[in-house]
């Protein structure tokens, strides 16, 4: 009964209190208690460690990591701080040997990725710089997707205004996109043209006085498509 009550109290504490991860250990009696470096023995055995190593950490989402078994071997997901390089390393262990993909972050925490490493049976195979760059770009886009989306929309609208001004000049008309009646067919077609028009070589040659703005409009349109493709591929 005492064992179950202790475990429930600790788990309840982890669920309710949002804090940094807490290291726990498992006693010989099966109790889960706060980690202690020294072995303690009592008459009833409730606080006897089966091993000073046997333990794990639990984060705010109740996910277990940094697990050591009774033989002091590291298993599963680990998040470690390297004091020498002042960097965070995260990845998986099997019997205290690093395996698979490990990510290295700056001392600022798990936000600033430095590199991605590949391990096999504890041996470093390579540092995947290409994957590191792709991951960095992915992280940047994910964190700033609202700002990137706003900039894309702004560039798209600027392109539409440029096209509208060119079309007005070519057709010798004065129409303002912001004050048009969208239910009027002619206005609707004008808006559609300002959105979809891509200036060909023939058009640019024919209306050479608008060459700079036409090329800039095409550039913005190409950039818009390219950014959408990249974001779709990375996210």
Explain this structure to me?
With about 240 residues, the protein is of the alpha+beta class. The chain has two domains: about 1-140, no CATH class; about 145-235, no CATH class. It contains six helices and nine strands, in the order αβββββββββααααα. It has helices spanning about 1-15, 130-145, 145-170, 185-195, 200-205, 210-235, and strands at about 20-25, 30-35, 55-60, 65-70, 75-80, 85-95, 95-105, 115-120, 125. Strands 2-1-3-4-5-6-7-8-9 form a nine-stranded antiparallel sheet, covered by helices on one side. A hairpin with a 5-residue loop joins strand 4 (about 65-70) and strand 5. Helix 3 (about 145-170) crosses helix 4 (about 185-195) and helix 3 packs antiparallel against helix 6. The longest helix has 27 residues, at about 145-170.
Give a summary of the structure in a few sentences:
By secondary structure, this protein is an alpha+beta fold. The chain is 42% helix and 24% strand.
How many β strands by DSSP? 9
Radius of gyration: 30 Å
Helix percent band = 40-55%
Largest sheet: 9 strands, antiparallel
Net shape: elongated
β-strand percent reads 15-25%
> How many helical elements?
6
Structural class: alpha+beta
How much is the average pLDDT?
Answer: 76
Spell the H/E element sequence: HEEEEEEEEEHHHHH
Spatial sequence of strands, sheet with the most strands:
2-1-3-4-5-6-7-8-9
Number of domains: 2
**What distance separates the N and C termini?**
49 Å
């Amino acid at each position: 009964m005492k064992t179950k009550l202790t475990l429930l109290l600790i788990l309840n504490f982890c669920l309710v209190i949002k804090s940094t991860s807490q290291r726990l250990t498992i006693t010989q009696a099966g109790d889960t208690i706060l980690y202690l470096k020294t072995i303690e023995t009592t008459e009833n055995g409730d606080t006897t460690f089966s091993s000073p190593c046997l333990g794990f950490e639990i984060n705010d989402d109740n996910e277990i990591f940094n697990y050591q078994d009774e033989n002091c071997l590291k298993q599963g997901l680990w998040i470690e701080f390297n004091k020498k390089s002042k960097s965070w390393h995260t990845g998986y262990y099997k019997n205290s040997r690093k395996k698979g993909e490990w990510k290295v972050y700056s001392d600022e925490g798990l936000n600033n990725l430095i590199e991605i490493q590949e391990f096999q049976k504890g041996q470093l195979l390579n540092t995947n710089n290409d994957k590191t760059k792709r991951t960095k770009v992915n992280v940047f886009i994910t964190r700033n997707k609202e700002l990137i989306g706003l900039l894309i929309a702004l560039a798209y609208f600027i392109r539409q205004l440029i096209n509208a001004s060119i079309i007005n000049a070519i057709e010798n008309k004065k129409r303002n996109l912001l004050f048009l009646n969208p239910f009027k067919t002619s206005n609707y077609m004008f808006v559609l043209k300002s959105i979809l028009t891509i200036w060909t070589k023939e058009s640019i040659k024919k209306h050479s006085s608008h060459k700079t703005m036409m090329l800039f409009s095409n550039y913005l349109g190409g950039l818009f498509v390219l950014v959408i493709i990249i974001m779709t591929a990375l996210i």
